[in-house]
């Protein structure tokens, strides 16, 4: 049976940062995004309100900003190599993130079979955010189940990689998970834990499942 590897993005594939942070830096709005991120981390705002706030913050966002943020982000080493190995072994890999889909989808070019992010209006923004398109922690479980159906595997054949409480529900739903650069709140829920900057090393913890 094939294995489906499910990756979070912010703080997992990206070391110590997140897509909204990297995008905001390109706009000179690093301090402003920190305040919004803190409110979200303290659960003072839910994902739809977070999305609405960053959409307003990014009023001047262009595709050039998004490209610069993506290319300059502090990615873990070895992402392409891990996904190439996954594909070579007949397995599957996907990214599920609460961050904007227009950023997350760029990882298809690195070898992911599928990517899922929150649905934002097209860049540059001319429309408001539709709350129905914004993902949540619970949505990660729903999407994982959809991917299982698509690829013909079950939850027992999945491995989740994540770092924050937005991954907790998915970790609870799957028997195998890897906490990547996570604090104890998340690593205590995972079957494996990794601290470092090379995805190949995290992947080695579970690659013998094939």
Low-confidence stretches: none
**Topology pattern, helix = H, strand = E:** EHHHHHHEHEHEHEHEH
Mean pLDDT: 96
User: What do we call the CATH topology of the largest domain?
Assistant: Rossmann fold
Q: Based on CA inertia axes, which overall geometry fits?
A: globular
Question: Which percent bin holds the helix content?
Answer: 40-55%
Q: What is the CATH C level class of the largest domain, in words?
A: Alpha Beta
- List the domain count as a whole number: 2
* First-residue to last-residue Cα separation: 8 Å
- The CATH architecture of the largest domain can be given as 3-Layer(aba) Sandwich
The tally of beta strands, per DSSP, is: 6
Order of neighbouring strands in the sheet with most strands = 3-2-1-4-5-6
Secondary structure topology:
Blueprint: E1 4-7, H1 9-13, H2 19-26, H3 30-41, H4 47-57, H5 63-72, H6 79-88, E2 92-100, H7 101-104, E3 114-118, H8 137-151, E4 158-162, H9 168-173, E5 177-180, H10 184-187, E6 192-194, H11 199-204
Parallel strand pairs: 1-2, 1-4, 2-3, 4-5, 5-6
Helix pairs in contact: 2-3, 2-5, 3-4
Which characteristics define this entry?
about 210 residues; alpha/beta; Rossmann fold; six-stranded parallel β-sheet; 11 helices; 6 strands; about 45% helix
């Amino acid at each position: 049976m094939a294995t489906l590897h499910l990756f979070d993005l912010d703080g997992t594939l990206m070391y110590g940062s997140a897509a909204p942070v990297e995008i905001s830096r390109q706009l000179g709005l690093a301090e402003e995004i920190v305040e919004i991120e803190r409110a979200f981390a303290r659960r003072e705002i839910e994902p739809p309100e977070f999305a609405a706030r960053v959409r307003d913050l990014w009023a001047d966002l262009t595709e050039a900003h998004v490209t610069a943020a993506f290319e300059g982000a502090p990615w873990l080493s070895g992402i392409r190599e891990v996904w190439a190995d996954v594909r070579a072994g007949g397995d599957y890999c996907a990214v599920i993130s609460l961050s904007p889909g227009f950023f997350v989808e760029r990882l298809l070019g690195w070898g992911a079979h599928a990517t899922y992010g929150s649905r934002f209006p097209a860049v540059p923004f001319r429309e408001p955010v539709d709350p129905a398109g914004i993902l949540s922690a619970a949505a990660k479980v729903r999407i994982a189940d959809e991917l299982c159906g698509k690829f013909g595997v079950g939850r027992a054949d999945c491995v989740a990689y994540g770092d924050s409480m937005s991954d907790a529900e998915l970790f609870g739903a799957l028997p195998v998970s890897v906490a990547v650069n996570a604090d104890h709140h998340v690593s205590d829920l995972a079957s494996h834990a990794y601290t470092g900057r090379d995805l190949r090393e995290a992947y080695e913890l579970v690659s013998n499942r094939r």
